[in-house]
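INTERNAL AUDIT FORM
Audit reference: QA-55
Scope: verify that the stored structure record matches its stored sequence.
Auditor: D.O.
Record contents follow.
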Amino acid sequence: MAVGGREFRSLDELRRYMAECDRCPLGCTRRNLVFGVGDPHAELMFIGEAPGEREDVLGEPFVGAAGKLLDELLASIGLRRDQVYIANVLKCRPPGNRDPLPTEIAECAPFLDEQIRLIDPKVIATLGKFAAQFVLKTSRGITSLRGKLYRVDGRQVIPIFHPAAALHNPGYRQVLFEDFRRLRAVLARTPEQAAEACAEGREVEPAREGAPRVVECETPRLFDLE
């Protein structure tokens, strides 16, 4: 989905275009635009929900306590933050860290779609309910979606709990580390293996007009950490 009828040549060009964005009221209440960070050609892209207070201050996603856990999760599968790309569904912080509103998601959606097009990741890992529902075009909850592999527009998508969930409920911590082991296994697949895993996949929901077909694939195994 192009932004305002145009496609951008780079993430930097898109960021400059968004600098004064006021498509929704969050543009008037934010301190900083939280565009995204990482390798602009990453094979793996993480999509979270919305910036929090610290992200709003620094203008970078996942820099608070949840960000520290994300760095730990990345390290557990041999990756660093600068080897992936991290963005959010919303680029501005909702007041009081409330949930994103449907109207806000709709206004910000073309920007995220353009980021995905420009980065062209092999795998997308969604973090939390709103990111999973946005990418998979579904109303299903994150608990029923996580731990599985999906294919959307030729990309592999793995829904994962938001790291913040483990800060409030330590029981989610082990689940997150297991999900990252699945993520590592998917990253290790060849294109042929990826296609085979989704060859017999079933459609999650009937695709809406103009929307991509979303297929649930074979559940990935856990990557064997040495």
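Auditor finding: record pair retrieved intact. The first strand starts at residue 37 and ends at 38.
Action required: none
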